[in-house]
Amino acid sequence: MRLDYSYKVGISSSVWIATITAGVTCAGVLYYLYVVRGQTRSHPILVDLILGVFVSSFFAYSMGFAALCVSYSILNPLLQLGKLLGPEGSFSSFITNESSTGALGLRISSATMGYAVIIALTRLFLEWPKQERSSDLDELQPVLSDLFMRLTNVSQYAVYVMVLANLWFLTINGIATWQVVILNWALFFILDDWAVINDYRYATKGRITVWANRRVWGFNLLLSILVAWVVVREFWGDDSREALFTLGLASGYGSQLSLVLLFFALLLRYLSDSSFAREASSDSEPGP
Q: How buried is 31 (Cβ within 10 angstroms: 0-12 exposed, 13-18 middle, 19+ buried)?
């Protein structure tokens, strides 16, 4: 029996939710930077203004794309529940269809990602919920400060959010090439892996094994190069405007914007874990 199901349902509502989320996030970050932390300003006002706009925009768009993925993954089947449970519907056919298109994995990744991004951002700005180290690890000399580790975590999840958003764009448009299959598998695998690596890294004050670091960056390169290749090939051709407007996005350039943000997320991820960050962490530690 052919399942009467559309992946275009719920996009408009999800875009509105994403837009509101981005706006609230932007306002919250600006409030934190200029009101909560305004008394500790150490740069000229113009520099602080430029940095504030860049930082707030980056986090706002990251949260917006995360909200888009989470809300769409819920609203899309929820708004078609009558079809799935009606006399002509079949829940088993829905699960089979979801598995064949890779959408089921994307829904699971969206739920996991949404939770992880919220926790990462609240820990970065509010230091809540607080992470705890076992007492026997408190004596370790920090390699990276808690601030830089939290920033690394946020920027790493921003990379995954941009990849996930593009995977949804591709799935909605019915694109199921071998590259998309690899992207689905790679993202699903590294999401859980990064959560474990990040917890270990925090517990050991910035330490990470060589193999774990290579694995994370190897997947960063794989995901970034592959998603850029597929998106440019599928959406940036002669019919790119028509293909993107079928997503119901207000600007019609969701994939292009996400690729730009993906580049900045990778750059921030690198800088937050670079030798500069390690030197800054060392300088901030009180002497004996």
A: middle
3-43 pLDDT, tens digit each: 678 898 999 899 999 999 999 999 999 898 888 876 556 66
Task: Determine the 3-state secondary structure of 132 from DSSP.
Answer: coil
Residue among 194, 184, 132 nearest 158 (CA): 194
| pLDDT tens digits along 64-86 | 999 999 999 999 999 998 888 87
Q: Which helix (H) or strand (E) holds 125?
A: helix 103-125
- The number of beta carbons lying within 10 Å of the beta carbon of residue 121 is 22
Residue closest to 15 by CA, chosen among 80, 69, 62, 79: 69
**Crossing angle for the helix pair 210-235 and 146-172, to the nearest 10 degrees:** 30
